[in-house]
Amino acid sequence: MHNRIAVLRAERGVSRRQLAEALGVHYQTVGYLERGEYNPSLHLALRIAQYFEVPVEVVFSTEPFPRIGG
């Protein structure tokens, strides 16, 4: 699974620890998610999308996201 968690965090100036605290997970879990080492449950994926106020498909995809400005 591919995701844009790191991009969304960077755009909003949110640290891994801040996101983890808001989601109720360990900050290392956020790192595992960003690196694709861990796939979230549906519940966690929806909570991440809700945190960033975007549809879940903006955050997660089964296909790689196209590069922006590349």
Short description:
With 70 residues, this protein is mostly helical.
What do these coordinates show?
With 70 residues, the protein is mostly helical. It has a single domain (2-53), classed as 434 Repressor (Amino-terminal Domain) (Orthogonal Bundle), CATH 1.10.260. It contains 5 helices and 2 strands; from the N terminus they run E-H-H-H-H-H-E. The chain has helices at 5-12, 16-23, 27-34, 42-52, 56-59; strands at 2-3, 60-61. The chain has a two-stranded antiparallel sheet with strand order 1-2. The two termini are 21 Å apart. The relative contact order is 0.22.
Task: Write the topology of this structure.
Blueprint: E1 2-3, H1 5-12, H2 16-23, H3 27-34, H4 42-52, H5 56-59, E2 60-61
Antiparallel strand pairs: 1-2
Helix pairs in contact: 2-3
List keywords for this structure.
single chain; globular; 6% strand; 434 Repressor (Amino-terminal Domain); 70 residues; mainly alpha; two-stranded antiparallel sheet; 5 helices
End-to-end Cα distance, whole Å, is 21 Å
Fraction in beta strands = 5-15%
Count of domain modules: 1
What is the CATH homologous superfamily assignment?
lambda repressor-like DNA-binding domains
CATH class: Mainly Alpha
Spatial order of strands in the largest sheet: 1-2
Number of strands: 2
Give me the strand/helix succession: EHHHHHE
Q: What's the number of helices?
A: 5
Q: If you average the pLDDT, what whole number results?
A: 95
Based on secondary structure, the structural category is mainly alpha
